[in-house]
Amino acid sequence: MKRFALAGNPNCGKTTLFNALTGSTAHVGNWPGVTVDKKTGQYKKLDETVEIVDLPGIYSLSPYTPEEIVSRNYILDEAPDCVINIVDATNLERNLYLTTQILEIDVPVVIALNMTDIVSKNGDKLNKDELSKKLGVPVVEISALKDYNIDALMKVADEASKAPRKGNLILNSEDPLYHLVNDCRIAIEYRGIKNPLFHAVKLVELDEIEAKDHEDLIPMVEEFKKTFSNDTFGTDFEAYIADARYQYISKNFANVYEKAQTGEKEEKTKSDKIDRVMTHRIWGLPLFIVIMFFIFHFTFAEDLFYLNAWFGVEIHNEGFINFLTGMGYEGEPLAGIPSLGVFLQNWMGWFSGHFIAGFQWICSGFQEYGDVAAEAASATWYGSLICDGILNGLDAVCSFIPQIMLLFLFIAILEDTGYMARIAFILDRAFRKFGLSGKAFIPMLTGFGCSVPAIMATRTLENEVEKNRTIRLMTCFSCGAKAPIWGLLAAVATYAGFGYGDVFVFTIYLGGIVLAIILAIFMRVFTKDTYVSPFIMELPQYHLPQPRNVGAHLWEKLKHYVIKAATIIAASLVVIWFLQTFGIENGGWAMVENMDNSFIAYIGKALQYIFYPCGWAIGADGWKHTVSSITGLVAKENVVGTMALFFNNGVEEGMEETIQFTSYGLYSFAIFNLLTFPCFAAIATAKAEQTKKEFLKTLGFWFGISYGLSALVYWLGALWAVAWWAGMIVTLALVAFLVFAAYFVVKRNKKASSIVALEA
Ligand code: GDP
Ligand code: MG
Question: Which neighbouring-strand residues pair with 140?
Fold first, then answer.
């Protein structure tokens, strides 16, 4: 099968093109670093099926970052039949820098000039024939986003792949380095090594890999250096060649792109204007916090805009209104208006309630629909397994689907419009002095979706210490699978009357970010490391969220969630149901009347002691909380599924009414579940990414930090409740300690490199 590789700068639209070509729904991120590994798919519209490889985004082929190494090795070693170099037409000159390097390789190349929709919208003009003539390779104008001309691109690539191509050099024969490069090329070619020109140029640049591979040729370069000196670059050949590339580009291609009088400028100023507010030096960070708050408010608030709490608004819950709000509590006045998330969840509850009741009715042998059928169904083992075990647990897990989808919708919109990229930038600006790079924030923010790809994305960090640290901090960023836990606890808090559900969930997410920052500061205190990755980030222009990108993202999430529920979670529920339904009662094995005699109660009660210091494990229900937390190891959704088996079983009220927590017990439980070991899949990913020693440290960190902080929160909360002044003293002491640690780190990091931001 023929193979075409997609190569280009970060954010030039590679993944968008890849998805359009292969019909895949790979993650399109509006920030660099999302595609670390190469992805493959198939394009079927040519005579012969072609394999498409999406390479990570790069600015050059020097081996400085993991992305560059992956892309470089692929093109050199795997020799694809054609390299499709995607060039962002609105950033032509910068993108062509990479192009000049790709063209040095002996491989067929086609330039896909992307984002031409923006070019024509701005009224700009692009001379594609001129570009093609000067580069010596075919150029095709496309728009990956609008699906424009991509089949034509593939035809051209197919044509190009039929003939071999020799690499060409941008240095002309008058250039002082021309002959040196040529001599190296001949020497390398003589050894039968492929792509001699590319290797020769990199050797003259004295790039790490080439210098190692052709050690014996280095004297040739060094010898030449003695006779050479450039006014600007001295004998730094790498800088000299980089400059030569840019000069070549501006000399040849400055006139290829003709800007309309106002067009592009207007678009730019629009983005700039938005950025003046969104990334404001002082207001940028508070604005992000406000935006986050509204997201959680619209998803989890029972009382939208606090109309009830602040203005005493009550709504008569009858007829059509009752229908709208999910047909619960007819006649009882509604305390304010529920948010969209809660509203959707009520509907889902109504639907799944009847779904389960239907099964109970069948399992009971068609007795009276409702409570009678429910009781009769639970009495048989199969009715209990199907209705109380599997369906009840799955219902608890799936009832949060609407809220989770809404949450992901908001996150996908933030990402697609380009705002998420700004958040990494804002965080970098705010926390660089504490030793935190925006480069590490990108995988962390990805962790809000799922820790598995987020841990993989830490490969972009060039420093091992920083990478290991980022992996450890990943659990602070609540992944999608943990959202049902927060949904359930939010309902418990609201029902118990000590908090607003939306505020609770908001504090978990925001608190996670704050905690990650605090922990990172402490990690700096205890290691000598002061390195902070430089953060080069392109801020893409803002654009309206594209329904296709956002939709694809949500669809992926939903599919993943449903498949997981139907397989791993359902299987876990069966096991837990068995352990909870059978046990030793009245001196023999049986289906137990009292859950406290079940197998799982014995297990839970033994383990309960371990978690006593965390508070939530104390008391009659302590073992249930313990078991629920442990089942979360398999998949985080299991926490809620297991709680449904314990607290929802044959009881009239909803779970929020039977789960008993104090306010600080609730937080302590939440913090443990947030920070402890993630699910098995994420643990396995961390194992693959780290050395054995570092991985064991990571496991220790996850357990220690979740256990320790959960206990701290519990005891501090209890102290506040008993004697607020004592709680205050301890809290102040902790804050003082933290401030001191931060001060220490800032002072030591004074000399850390400062931020470089390339504005697109
Ligand atoms: P990658 O980093 O090269 O994989 O780039 P992505 O495919 O993730 O795209 C980066 C951003 O550019 C996304 O927000 C895309 O929606 C947007 N984008 C990609 N192709 C086009 C295009 O042809 N036109 C426009 N207007 N936007 C595009
Ligand atoms: Mg990508």
Answer: 112
Report pLDDT for 450. Answer: 85
Q: How far apart are CA 298 and CA 632, in angstroms?
A: 27
d(CA 697, CA 704): 10
- pLDDT band per the 50, 70, 90 thresholds, residue 690: very high
11 CA distance to ligand 2 centroid (A)?
A: 7
Q: How far apart are the CA of 423 and the centre of ligand 1, in A?
A: 18
85 lines ligand 1 (CB under 6 A): no
Task: Report CA(587)–ligand 1 centroid distance (Å).
Answer: 68
Domain with CATH 1.10.287 in the chain: 178-258
The 3 state secondary structure assigned to 130-141 is HHHHHHCCCEEE
Query: What pLDDT sits at residue 537?
Result: 67
Residue with tokens 């239907």: 358
Distance 536 CA to ligand 2 centre (A): 16
User: Is the minimum distance from the CB of 114 to ligand 1 under 6 angstroms?
Assistant: yes
Mean pLDDT across 13-38: 74
Distance CA 128, CA 113 (A): 8
Query: Residues with Cβ < 8 Å from 120, sequence gap 6 or more?
Result: none
Whether 66 lines ligand 1, by a CB cut-off of 6 Å, is: no
Q: Give, in degrees to the nearest 5, the angle at Cα 598 between 597 and 603.
A: 105
Q: What is the mean pLDDT of residues 506-519?
A: 94
**90: which 2 tokens?**
């609105």
Split at pLDDT 50, 70, 90, the class of 758 is very low
Per-position b or e across 367-396, b if 16+ CB within 10 A of its CB:
eeeeeebbebbbeeeebbbbbbbbbbbbbb
Ligand 1 atom closest to 9 (CA) = 3
Angstrom distance (rounded) from CA 263 to CA 541 = 14
Percentage, residues of the chain above pLDDT 70: 93
Are residues 577 and 645 in contact, defined by beta-carbon separation less than 8 angstroms?
yes
What pLDDT does 759 receive? 35
Specify the CATH architecture of the domain 178-258: Orthogonal Bundle (1.10)
Give me the pLDDT at residue 40, please: 86
Q: In angstroms, how far is the first alpha carbon of the chain from the final one?
A: 37
Q: Which stretches does DSSP call E strand in 650-755?
A: none
Taking a C-beta distance cutoff of 8 angstroms, is the pair 228, 106 a contact?
Answer: no
Please give the sequence-ordered ranges of beta strands (E in DSSP) within 408-480, or none if there are none: none
| Mean pLDDT of the 70-86 span | 93
What is the pLDDT at residue 757? 36
Least confident of 60-74, 180-194, 619-633, 677-691: 60-74
Question: Which percentage of the chain shows pLDDT scores above 90?
Answer: 44
Residue for token digits 């420093």? Answer: 463
Is the Cβ atom of 338 under 6 angstroms away from ligand 1?
A: no
Question: C-alpha angle 64/65/67, rounded to 5°?
Answer: 135
Query: Strand 2-8 relative to strand 82-88: parallel, antiparallel, unpaired?
Result: parallel
Quote the CA–CA distance of 51 and 1 in Å, as a whole number: 7
pLDDT tens sequence across 642-665: 999 899 865 566 788 889 899 999
Per-residue pLDDT of 446-473, as tens digits, reads: 888 888 888 987 877 767 888 899 999 9
Taking the CA of residue 118 as reference, the ligand 1 atom at the shortest distance is: 26
Q: Where in the sequence of the chain do the CATH 3.40.50.300 domains occur?
A: 2-160
What letter would DSSP give residue 171? Answer: S
* pLDDT value of position 489: 94
pLDDT band at 116 (very low <50, low <70, confident <90, very high): very high
Our CA angle for 574, 579, 580, nearest 5°, is 95
Which segments of 2-91 does DSSP mark as H helices, in order?
14-22, 66-77
DSSP result, 182-207 = HHHHHHHHHTT-S-HHHHHHHHHTT-
CATH for 2-160 (3.40.50.300, 3.10.450.50, 3.30.70.100, 3.40.50.740): 3.40.50.300
Query: What average pLDDT score do residues 584-608 get?
Result: 89
